[in-house]
Amino acid sequence: MAVFRSGLLVLTTPLATLAARLPPILTSASRLVNHTLYVHLQPGMNLGGPAQPQASPVQATFEVLDFITHLYTGADLHRHLDVRILLTNIQTKSTFLPVLSSVQNLAHPPEVVLTDFQTLDGSQYNPVKQQLERYATSCYSCSPQLASVLLYPDYGTGELPLEPPNALLPSTIRPASPVARSPRQPVRGYHRGAVGGTFDRLHNAHKVLLSVACVLAQEQLVVGVADKDLLKSKLLPELLQPYAERVEHLTEFLVDIKPSLTFELIPLLDPYGPAGSDPTLEFLVVSEETYRGGMAVNRFRLENGKEELALYQIQLLKDQSHNENEEDKVSSSSFRQRILGNLLQPPNERPELPSGLYVLGLTGISGSGKSSVAQRLKNLGAYIIDSDHLGHRAYAPGGPAYQPVVEAFGTDILHKDGTINRKVLGSRVFGNKKQMKILTDIVWPVIAKLAREEMDVAVAKGKTLCVIDAAMLLEAGWQSMVHEVWTVVIPETEAVRRIVERDGLSEAAAQSRLQSQMSGQQLVEQSNVVLSTLWESHVTQRQVEKAWNLLQKRLPKAYQTRN
């Protein structure tokens, strides 16, 4: 059967029954759609009658909100799918109006429409499929070559956990008192409300927060998107998507699921954001994690003469497949951990490098642990070119950088035996940009020449893959000598701690050293692969092996034969 890039899943089964059938329905849909799956809830709709069914309002109750959470939780098992529950026909009691009076445009027009509707004999009954296609195109912008599939009985094979007709979903939405909360209780609508978050790599837990906020809001939703100082404490902040990219993805999702709302997306620069200062806001959607923050927002509002916001607390989505050192909830932090070792941007063509030799440049801020990564790569078969060792050769008496450095900085940088005292030299240049440039203009070209000579040695030894281990790889412009840049990242506080422990420097001296280098963020922006030594040694080893194995898969065979 054909696989489609985008699809529309029309769910017609009553929610209590549908909840039990949802896992196999999503599995069946995931076999047919490989990118975007829109979901349209129309419980009780009959596609088998003589009349063409019309879209009708679905009362927004806490049961409906719980089902939305349940569906996104189930969708998390199919991470290749971007699932989006469409909310136009889900309405609060205060806005119970005719729905879908015009065709709604979608960012990814569905190429196939699917449904859980059951025909009497379980066949792909053409009149039902025609009804389904007409219904889909009357509601949403679809592909001109729209296909249709009745998922039953595919999802109905095997034993299903049969729920009693009145079975209720677990409660996942908790409104703060005095808002009533019972499953069939209609949800109150508000004019304006707010929700906030980092929204990095928009995932299903984000979608629950945003969807609940969209159901509650009837006119405008203010979305605070964390930026700048609020990002510093995040795990692997170097891998966060840029603010503009996060806003772009958010906007597309929000306009898709409820285009009738006005959205205001703004940078969130402090813990309160617009929720603390905007007198026109009426509600705030928070997660279990950020509930205390919501309470703090309300205290802040009261202190400044504003009314409290109605708080709606959303239960965290559990991540059923989290790995070691990952959180047990669905989170962007875990997603960032999972891209460590992946290829983030295509390798560079380097025809000027020795034929048959593939070169990686390994870099990272001081204290990042890149030398330990280099040793792991060596153990896997890579030929290592250590720029520190090349630097020692360059500085040694008679070395190619010795005389120019002595002439530039004077004989008082020498030990009694005539060798260069690198600590004294370092004290002259660290923190002094002019002096540092004089030194690097001498030394970097020399080390680059020595590195190229080492590449020839690697080829002569029959090696096909080598790694240039260099803290200043990008500052020196040596990326032109490598096919890929691999960067090891670590929080600056951890780097300072390691430098102090390793080199016996003061914290101030360690920070000064880091300030003379590119930041981790700047390095990552120019990197093909990112790794981190933040966790235990075996976790680092697993990362390096993953990166190595992925590298072997994308390398031409000529580079793999002798490693």
Automatic annotation (TrEMBL):
Keyword annotations of the record: ATP-binding, Coenzyme A biosynthesis, Cytoplasm, Kinase, Mitochondrion, Multifunctional enzyme, Nucleotide-binding, Nucleotidyltransferase, Phosphoprotein, Signal, Transferase
GO cellular component annotations of the record: mitochondrial matrix; mitochondrial outer membrane
Alphabetical GO biological process terms: coenzyme A biosynthetic process
Chemical reaction(s) catalysed: 3'-dephospho-CoA + ATP = ADP + CoA + H(+); (R)-4'-phosphopantetheine + ATP + H(+) = 3'-dephospho-CoA + diphosphate
Catalytic class of the enzyme: transferase
PROSITE patterns: DPCK
GO molecular function, one term: dephospho-CoA kinase activity
Pfam families with a match to the protein in the record: CoaE, CTP_transf_like
Subcellular location field: Cytoplasm; Mitochondrion matrix
EC annotation from Swiss-Prot or TrEMBL: 2.7.1.24, 2.7.7.3
Database matches in InterPro entries: Cyt_trans-like, Depp_CoAkinase, P-loop_NTPase, Rossmann-like_a/b/a_fold
Pathway: Cofactor biosynthesis; coenzyme A biosynthesis; CoA from (R)-pantothenate: step 5/5; Cofactor biosynthesis; coenzyme A biosynthesis; CoA from (R)-pantothenate: step 4/5
Signal sequence, start to end: 1-19
Transmembrane segments: none
Alphabetized CDD domains for the sequence: DPCK (cd02022), PPAT_CoAS (cd02164)
Cytidyltransferase-like domain mapped to chain residues: 195-338
PANTHER family: BIFUNCTIONAL COENZYME A SYNTHASE-RELATED, DEPHOSPHO-COA KINASE-RELATED
Family statement: In the central section; belongs to the eukaryotic CoaD family.
Protein role: Bifunctional enzyme that catalyzes the fourth and fifth sequential steps of CoA biosynthetic pathway. The fourth reaction is catalyzed by the phosphopantetheine adenylyltransferase, coded by the coaD domain; the fifth reaction is catalyzed by the dephospho-CoA kinase, coded by the coaE domain. May act as a point of CoA biosynthesis regulation.
Name the record gives this protein: Bifunctional coenzyme A synthase
Species annotation: Mus spicilegus
